[in-house]
Amino acid sequence: MVGKLLLRGMLVGLVAGILAFAFARVYGEPQVDKAIAFEEQQAQAAGEAPEPEMVSRAIQAGIGLATGVLVYGAALGGLFSLVFAYAYGRLGSLGPRGTSALLALLGFLAVIVVPGLKYPANPPAVGNPETIAYRTELFFIMIVISIAAMVAAVGLAQRLWNRLGAWNASIAAALAFLVVFALVKAALPDINEVPESFSATVLWQFRVASLGIQLVLWTVVGLGFGAVVERVVGVRDQRGPARRYA
Amino acid sequence: MSDTTFAPSYGPVAIPVRELLPWAIFGGLLLMLAIYFIGAEEGATSLIRGTYVHEFVHDGRHLLGFPCH
What SS3 string covers chain A? Predict the structure, then answer.
């Protein structure tokens, strides 16, 4: 059963990755190119020798980008299916499609949006190579805290469900999540390594494209996975005992 | 009422944790390793010498939102 879910999750993730790659090609690559042009111009102005190109731009923007996004998509789909395998049947009476869609929404918020508000995606030319270890550490700490807060918020909503009703329990849990986010956002150090003369437009469009790629991935996984596992997971119907399609 | 459990008479059936756990551990580790190679190898940490992996997935790494350079 779990193996079937995992396989389907990875396949849906792969499809999501293909669509996200197309999106990244159209909306993301122009911004990467502009950022690299800026980087080269800065290096030239500073009298530095141009960096040797180990992998050509065409490969980076083609097969390299495709590999990155597809592997990421398949891995995301797989991990998503494992979380689904645990959450299904444990989130009230939500069916497979509802569970999948809700998990994708909460996951997108906890893994992408909230950490991204603190440590947003940056194009090439933004970021000091000397602080990469520090920045990577903070980025993952932020994601871990955000996921933990989301799990706690869902638990809180479930606990308050019967007492407050569905709406009020969810609002209370969302507020608790926001409070944690506000505290963590204030407590963790800020990072701003955008060069003074970097185009604000390129930075904005790059970040919107980056968010768009993630939105494509999570939407396709959330809606697609529910659809393909509808007949795999167990349901109990009104008349008889537990029934499994698997 | 022959049903002696507290589970509702209809609705989704949860997968027992002991059935899920081995998949979650081994699958989860492998999948996270894949994300590590796309997102962080030859950046903050490095298992393979050189910068080829980094350069190859460079654009994806930036666009997927990982810290880079």
Answer: CHHHHHHHHHHHHHHHHHHHHHHHHHHHHHHHHHHHHHHHHHHHHCCCCCCCCCCCHHHHHHHHHHHHHHHHHHHHHHHHHHHHHHHCCCCCCCCHHHHHHHHHHHHHHHHHHHHHHHCCCCCCCCCCHHHHHHHHHHHHHHHHHHHHHHHHHHHHHHHHHHHHCHHHHHHHHHHHHHHHHHHHHHHCCCCCCCCCCCCHHHHHHHHHHHHHHHHHHHHHHHHHHHHHHCCCCCEECCCCCEECCC
Query: What are the tens digits of pLDDT across the range A130-150?
Result: 899 999 999 999 999 999 999
Contact A32 B35 (CB under 8 A): no
Q: Which of A28, A123, A136 sits opposite B40 (nearest CB)?
A: A136
Whole-number percent of chain A with pLDDT over 70: 96
pLDDT of residue B6: 54
Interface of B with A in 29-58 (CB under 8 A): 31-32, 34-35, 37-40, 43-45, 51-52, 55-58
Q: Is the ipTM of this complex over 0.85?
A: yes
Report residue A41 as tokens: 């111009």
CB-based contact B44 A237, cutoff 8 Å: no
Q: Which of A44-58, A136-150, B28-42, B47-61 has the lowest mean pLDDT?
A: A44-58
Question: Which portions of chain A are predicted below pLDDT 70?
Answer: 237-246
User: Would you call A86 and B17 a contact, using CB atoms and an 8 Å cutoff?
Assistant: yes
